[in-house]
Amino acid sequence: MPTSKPSPPSRVSVAAFVYTGGAHPRFLLLKRVEALGGFWQPITGVVDDGESPRDAVVREVAEESGIRRFTRVTDLDYAYDYPANGQTCTERCFAMEVAPDTPVTLSDEHTTFCWRDYAEATRLLFYQEYRDALERLKALLSDGTPPAPRRDGAAPRAGTGRRTPRRSSTR
């Protein structure tokens, strides 16, 4: 009797788009070490067993940037799947508002950081899904309404089964 191979377990990760409030928000980007890809990204990390995605995003921001004080955490209602180590990973995106003078202390996963406006942050982000999430955040900050789902289903859930890198990345 044929048996089906069990699908590999899935895991959940989070992406945190840390930004400064006000009329001209700035977005925090971190550059990963070369051994981990060397690209610009928001803060990311895996949700631990028994941990909520919101709690994971607060923990990951503290671990990777040293930021422990924030004004608000917002679920961007945007997620996408990608393969990672033989598993399907679903990454949920959040936004975290901080004060403009918030200091950043990097973990060893990153080499540097920058605060950028929307246009520059969009240009630097490596994966399309990150750019889509940032677009959602920009719309929420502008008028409180996220963009309508794209015809390809990218928002609120991409569901492509992989991350989509920029064709020619800017490192």
What this model shows, in words?
- Helix 2 (118-124) packs antiparallel against helix 3.
- The termini are far apart.
- Helices cover 21% and strands 32% of the residues.
- The chain has helices spanning 53-65, 118-124, 128-143, and strands at 11-20, 27-32, 40-41, 43-46, 72-84, 87-98, 110-116.
- It is α+β, with helices and mostly antiparallel strands and 171 residues long.
- Residues 149-162 and 165-171 have low confidence and may be disordered.
- The strands form 2 sheets. The protein has a 4-stranded mixed beta sheet, with helices on both faces.
- The longest helix is centred in the last third of the chain and has 16 residues, at 128-143.
- Strand 2 (27-32) and strand 3 form a beta hairpin.
Which key features would you list for this structure?
171 residues, alpha+beta, 7 strands, four-stranded mixed β-sheet, disordered C terminus, three-stranded antiparallel β-sheet
Radius of gyration: 16 Å
The end-to-end distance, rounded to whole angstroms, is 52 Å
Count of DSSP-assigned helices:
3
Largest sheet: 4 strands, mixed
Structural class by helix and strand composition: alpha+beta
Strand content: 25-35%
Q: Write the H/E string, N to C.
A: EEEEHEEEHH
Q: Mean pLDDT across all residues, rounded?
A: 85
Described by the principal axes of the CA atoms, the overall outline is globular
How many beta-strand elements?
A: 7
* Helix residue percentage: 10-25%
Low-confidence stretches: 149-162, 165-171
- Strand numbers in spatial order across the main sheet: 4-1-6-5
